[in-house]
């Protein structure tokens, strides 16, 4: 069963990318670099190959965490972290990811391959990268397996969900003065570099002590002298609040301009806090001991399964945008985590042992089963959507080819070179 209705397939041909980038850093610093960088790629390289290459850099970073810091995924939790030089590779890998993510749209216009498939593929890779960077950043900031990392995951996914929700209701992608894909990524790159130089324990330094503000009684009276890493989390909360406000303002203006109900889109925000509540309930379940999963090697697999489910959720939202289909309220992939959360909370709900997760070994089996099912389901979603779009539009996903009227493959015509410098 496919994800696109016949009417949705017909709407693919009406799709046209629209975007607004208000980032001064992007406009005056990064865009000239990206414009030059895309010229290094031959025109026979498909845009999606560039996108996938960027994601592979992030996957390599994650693999290096597993290889060089195996204790992080063990019972010990890894107090020391990976060798400091690993953080420099994370910084380089993430910067390459950002660069490739920025030029895939330019390559699409160079090769005449711009279209809805590119946006689907781009957002899918971005969604996967979000969770992976949360895990890596939490390690670099010495937050490790903690509620701070869970809060970081929730905030990062919330920002992504907001952007997708906003694009669905306005018809265009907004990048604010401070946005995740530009300033946010560069901030994380900087954090990796500092961790590489000073080590992740540096971020435990009390912020007021580090800045010298602890000598000012008025400040110490009202501001707690917490670690730098916790202040970074607080900064992330401020950015999230700012993005919530600006996203809704954009949606409100778009709905008023089109004569639609301005407050109805707010209902489409509800699925996200519901999914966060499910995951937090599972993580905080009272089985064996409070936060058993949080303090065990199962923490990372659970975050990864959460990220895959989220990628499926926002993938369907982007698909609804490009095909002009109804907003996807419900995602069946939530069911598995909902079962896990309810079962693990049986001691709290019914004062009895869980039906499934009644032993540490069963918890492990169930979480890894959740991860496997989430991965297979998301891969299936990607395969079906790519197959439907490529077949209907007569294009290839990873080669610069199109079908002519007879159905024979031909090279796509190189077009729109004048606009290669514009960001997709």
UniProtKB/TrEMBL annotation:
Keywords: Membrane, Transferase, Transmembrane, Transmembrane helix. It comes from the Eukaryota. It is found in: Membrane. The keyword Transmembrane helix applies. The chain crosses the membrane at residues 44-68, 173-194, 231-251, 263-282, 366-386. Belongs to the CDP-alcohol phosphatidyltransferase class-I family. This is Ethanolaminephosphotransferase. It comes from Somion occarium. The lineage of its organism: Eukaryota, Fungi, Dikarya, Basidiomycota, Agaricomycotina.
């Amino acid at each position: 069963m496919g994800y696109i209705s016949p009417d949705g397939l017909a709407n693919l041909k009406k799709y046209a990318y629209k975007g607004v980038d208000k980032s001064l850093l992007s406009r005056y610093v990064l865009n000239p670099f990206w414009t030059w960088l895309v010229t290094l790629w031959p025109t026979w390289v498909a845009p999606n190959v560039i996108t996938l290459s960027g994601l592979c850099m992030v996957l390599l970073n994650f693999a290096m965490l597993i290889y060089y810091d195996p204790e992080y995924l063990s019972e010990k939790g890894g107090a020391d972290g990976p060798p400091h030089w690993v953080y420099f590779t994370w910084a380089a890998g993430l910067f390459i990811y950002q660069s490739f993510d920025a030029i895939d749209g330019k390559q699409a216009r160079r090769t005449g391959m711009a279209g809805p498939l590119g946006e689907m593929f781009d957002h899918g890779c971005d969604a996967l990268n979000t969770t992976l960077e949360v895990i890596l950043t939490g390690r670099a900031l010495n937050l490790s397996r903690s509620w701070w990392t869970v809060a970081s995951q929730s905030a990062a996914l919330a920002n992504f969900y907001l952007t997708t929700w906003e694009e669905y209701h306005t018809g265009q992608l907004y990048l604010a003065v401070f946005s995740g894909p530009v300033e946010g990524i560069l901030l994380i790159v900087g954090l990796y570099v500092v961790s590489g130089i000073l080590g992740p324990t540096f971020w435990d330094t009390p912020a007021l002590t580090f800045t010298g503000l602890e000598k000012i009684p008025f400040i110490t009276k009202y501001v707690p002298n917490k670690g730098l890493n916790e202040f970074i989390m607080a900064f992330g909360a401020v950015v999230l609040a700012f993005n919530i406000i600006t996203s809704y303002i954009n949606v409100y203006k778009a709905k008023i301009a089109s004569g639609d109900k301005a407050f109805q889109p707010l209902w489409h925000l509800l699925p996200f806090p519901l999914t966060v509540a499910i995951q937090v309930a599972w993580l905080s379940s009272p089985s064996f001991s409070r936060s058993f999963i949080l303090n065990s090697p199962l923490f990372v697999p659970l975050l990864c399964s959460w990220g895959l489910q989220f990628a499926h959720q926002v993938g369907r939202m982007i698909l609804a945008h490009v095909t002009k289909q109804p907003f996807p309220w419900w995602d069946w992939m939530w069911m598995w985590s909902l079962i896990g959360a309810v079962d693990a909370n049986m001691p709290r709900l019914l004062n009895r042992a869980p039906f499934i997760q009644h032993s540490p070994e069963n918890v492990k089996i169930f979480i890894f089963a959740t991860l496997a099912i989430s991965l297979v389901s998301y891969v299936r979603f990607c395969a079906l959507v790519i197959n439907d779009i490529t077949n209907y539009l007569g294009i290839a996903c990873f080669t610069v080819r199109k079908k002519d009227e007879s159905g024979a493959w031909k090279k796509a015509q190189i077009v729109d070179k004048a606009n290669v410098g514009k960001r997709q």
